[in-house]
Amino acid sequence: GAGADNDLYINQAIVFIEDAIQYRSINHRVDSKSLWLYRWYYSRTCQWILSLTITIILALAFIEKPSSLTVTSDVRYRLPAWNPPCGLTESIELLCFLVFVVDVSVKSYLVGWEEFWKNKWLMAYILTLIVSLTDWIVSLSFLCTENVRIRRILRPFFLLQNSSMMKKTLKSINSTLPEMASVVLLLAVHLSLFTMFAMLLFARTKDGQQDKEWMVYFRNLPDSLTSLLVLLTTANNPDVMIPAYSKNRAYSIFFILFTVLGNLFLMNLLTAIIYNQFRGYLLKSVQSSLFRRRLGIRAAFEVLSSLKEAPANAQQSYVNTGALQQVLQKVEMDSRCKQAIMRSLKMCSCDQLSAAQFQKLFEELDKDAIRQHPPSPDYQSRFMQKIQFAFGHPYFGYLGNVVALANIVSICVVLVMDADKQPSERDDFFLGAINCFFILYYLLEMLLKILAMGLKRYLSYPSNRFDGLLTVILLVLEIATFAVYGFPHPGWRPEFIGLLSLWDMVRLVNMLIVFRFLRIIPNMKFMALVVTTLLDLVKNLRAFAGILVVVFYAFAITGIMLFKGAVVPMGNIRYIGNKLNTSWPFFNLFFSFKEKCGFMGLFGYFQADVTYCLLYLLSLNLICRWAKIYFVAWWLISSVIWVNLFVALLLENFIHKWDRRCHREPLSDIEYQRTVELMFRDVLEEPTEEELMEKLHQHPHLQLCR
Asked: Are residues 403 and 519 in the same domain?
């Protein structure tokens, strides 16, 4: 009947608006049961369970055999790691796979058969599950003794497919690769030409004493290519040139030219190209997100205009404001946006909304998130008003910064004076006394600010919350110190009573005081701009960090399978019978090539600081020369591509904030919060009504009345 149809239209509008808020596609089933399933699937509980499952299956690598969960990563001193029995981690894996099977089944049903075949991610999801389950069965049949487990490498895919922003970012990176390839090819030509020059310059001579450069670095083509590739990362600079430079100073010209052309020109040119191209592709991705939002809002308008009580008009459709209010009550959205839309709706004098008015209402979703600080208390007393003016004034905050600086200077002076003293020779009376004085000042400052600003206004500022929390912690530590060791007095020396020694507690207090000095950042405009840029990257660009985790994880697991057993601990012996002591940081923690060619090793290689280890491993014949492909691939993906992508995004975010800073005066009582989509809001193009209606008429499950 009409009532059932109206309920269906209301539910469709609710889902379409929620899709618009989250930038989701609206191409899914829209019948009553499917809408209920759809909202259940995207509920916080279900998404939390899915996220927890992904976290668990990724974390299994830390406890699976070979395990590295030990206090120390030095293989000479740590106790044998716990290895779970066969079937324990496999059982957890199976539960995770069952959750993923339910996940992909629900997704496939909701999008429908026609959309399923167009969705490459869903098909890849199913293929990944089939391969993983097959490998799981093989693993159990071998009683968990097999060395190669394909499903471990595939685990990051579950993280990747669950994030729409990560998928868009990956698509943008993939589109940028052809432009990157031209510079990488130029880099390869540069490397090849200088390799040939090096082999000609440092050829073998009759005098074996003068052939150190040839013997160590340029003995043959693979060694020469590897030496210069490592030099491109500056990891073996200046070691690679020392033998030749000792022989003749003029040889330094070769290495200077190679470094200048490679590092200063080609690598920076790659950064410029990545910034230019990737920004364009990211802009396209954000443009498509805007189109999805506008499409979801327009779809909600079209279904609400189909309600039986909606006014009939052959020329134009309208939506009753009452129906929209009913929808907004049930939509899950930010309370700020919902209240703003409801206010705008009440201020509207008309009972019906056109498509343009309907769309304009939801433009509130595109605006900056604005948080206004509560007002200060309104004191009637003249004396309290003076107190409020004095301690609420910015100069009182500046005084606090000066006191914090004095505290840091005093700690530095004491640390310099006591640097060479044994713990038993130290007299902590002076340090304890000044800490007591400064902590009392911090407490007094916090109380006076609360009195002047009011508790709610005080807590509304992040810098005040930061100050207040550290002040309370410092006060608790100081009281605990006095309770255990008494008040500071001459000859107040460290003793070990209870959980921590006096020196440990004083050090902890001093570290927190140093950390508290970061309060000056908001008062330094340019520094605050830099810090907010970094915080925005952390908050808004999680997709890039997620892809980096995917790459790290895949390479770490691959390294475990390729290099397991290549190096073993041999006590303090550096090299015995082609075996290498793994106490190097490069081989430690998720963790060492004996166990895991993992995160810490790859993180060092990510920084290009331990590239020289590749040469050392090759020189000891611990790994075959084909292993260079693994290390070079990681260097290209991490240091060359990913670092440049991060620099490009850092530049984009910083330039955007700098432009906003120049064009808008900062308001003390208002804080603006930006998202990735809002970064590009000023340059995005609004979709036309024809484009929206054409896309809506192509919806596989929605039949519009017009």
From this structure: yes
Per the CB < 8 A criterion, the answer to whether 136 and 151 are in contact is yes
Residue span of the structural domain in which 102 resides: 43-162
Whether residue 178 lies inside any domain: the answer is: no
Short-list 32, 17, 36, CA closest to 296: 17
Q: Encode pLDDT of 447-467 as tens digits.
A: 998 998 888 888 888 778 888
Tokens (6 digits) for 85:
């029995």
For tokens 């009939």, the residue is 312
What's the pLDDT at 557? 84
418's CB contacts (< 8 A; 6+ apart) are: 426
Model confidence, pTM = 0.73
The letter for the amino acid at 200 is L
Q: Which residues, at least 6 apart from 684, have a Cβ–Cβ distance to it below 8 Å?
A: 283, 286, 287, 290
Confirm whether 20 is domain-assigned. Answer: no
Pair 542, 498 in one domain: no
Contacts 24+ apart (CB under 8 A), 702-705: 702/12, 702/26, 702/30, 702/299, 702/303, 704/302, 704/306, 705/302, 705/305, 705/306
**How many CB atoms are located within 10 Å of the residue 587 CB?**
29
Phi first, then psi, for residue 58 (nearest 5°) are -75, -35
Least Cα distance to 277 among 544, 535, 638, 652 occurs for 652
**In terms of domains, do 647 and 612 share one?**
yes
User: Is 564 within a domain?
Assistant: yes
